[in-house]
């Protein structure tokens, strides 16, 4: 419907000569068609809103907020589990070998000292 009045407004009729502007009757007819379209749109919105009069928005908002809360809770729990898994991997792959290397060298040094002391005493 919108294109029909645009086409009629931009294309001159066969009886008229295009002089760069339209007469007042053509402009008023355009505004009249726009007003009719707006009124029909308002009527359609009113019909839709009347069909939702028995609809309770508060219950839906509460259920949506509780769903969002549960989704956020599950997401947070999943992120916590992933963080714990990452910490476990850091401990197993980085800290445990470093501590083992340090303790192994310290123990080897103490054992070597005892071996040397035993060897030097006996000789």
TrEMBL record:
- InterPro entries recorded for this chain? Mim2 (IPR037652)
The record's listing under Pfam families reads: Mim2
Name any GO cellular component annotation.
mitochondrial outer membrane
What processes in GO biological process is this protein linked to?
mitochondrial outer membrane translocase complex assembly; protein insertion into mitochondrial outer membrane
**Residues of the signal sequence?**
none
Cite the PANTHER family for this sequence: CHROMOSOME 1, WHOLE GENOME SHOTGUN SEQUENCE, MITOCHONDRIAL IMPORT PROTEIN 2
Q: What is this protein called?
A: LAME_0G08262g1_1
């Amino acid at each position: 419907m919108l294109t029909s009045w645009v086409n009629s407004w931009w294309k001159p009729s066969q009886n008229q000569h295009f002089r760069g502007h339209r007469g007042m009757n053509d402009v008023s007819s355009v505004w009249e068609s726009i007003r009719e379209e707006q009124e029909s749109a308002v009527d359609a919105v009113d019909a839709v809103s009347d069909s939702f009069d028995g609809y309770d928005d508060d219950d839906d908002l509460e259920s949506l907020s509780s769903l969002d809360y549960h989704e956020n809770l599950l997401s947070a729990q999943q992120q916590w589990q992933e963080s714990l898994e990452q910490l476990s991997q850091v401990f197993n792959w980085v800290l445990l070998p470093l501590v083992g290397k340090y303790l192994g060298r310290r123990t080897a040094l103490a054992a070597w000292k005892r071996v040397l002391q035993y060897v030097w005493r006996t000789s």
